């Protein structure tokens, strides 16, 4: 079962909800790239109500928090935000918001394309213990760790 990162402290009914893709429910005045990222004003309001919405990060819209606010205003029940891999996890008190990488987001799109009534199940946040996180270079570094002294990075 695919999983993403989330921290949500509100109530969850632990049931299945319909899932829609932002680009598939664009408003009549929006373009597809805005709807793909779920930019405010780009989604058909009536098609969001009661659903979980899949949105993709873009260069202009990088914040899952901003998108969660938009989905909440439109009475959506949740957000799946497909993004560049990151260690940051937003704490959403508005609606459940799961952050996944682009690969999992693309798998969800394939599932949605091959299923008549695609659904997702929202459950309470759980901590997974025992999965080691690999060391990585900070997102702002272009040099990486020192190969001569692996315990220290280049300063």
Describe, in plain words, how this protein is organized in 3D.
The chain has helices at residues 32-36, 45-48, 64-73, 102-113, and strands spanning 7-8, 16-21, 52-56, 78-83, 91-92, 97-101, 119-121. It is 20% helix and 19% strand. β3 (52-56), α3 and β4 form a beta-alpha-beta unit. The model has no long low-confidence stretch (mean pLDDT 80). The strands form two sheets. It has a five-stranded mixed β-sheet, sandwiched between helices. A two-stranded parallel sheet has the order 1-5. The longest helix has 12 residues, at 102-113. With 155 residues, the chain is an alpha/beta fold.
Instruction: Tell me the strand percentage band.
Output: 15-25%
As residue ranges, the low-confidence spans are none
The radius of gyration over CA amounts to: 17 Å
Q: What's the mean pLDDT score? A: 80
**Spatial strand order of the main sheet:** 6-4-3-2-7
User: Number of DSSP helices?
Assistant: 4
Structural category:
alpha/beta
Shape: globular
Order of helices and strands: EEHHEHEEEHE
In this structure, how is the largest beta sheet organized?
A: 5 strands, mixed
Residues in helices, as a percent range: 10-25%
Terminal-residue CA separation: 42 Å
Number of strands: 7
Domain Cyclic nucleotide-binding: 1-70
Protein name: Subtilisin-like protease SBT3.5
GO molecular function, one term: serine-type peptidase activity
Family: Belongs to the peptidase S8 family.
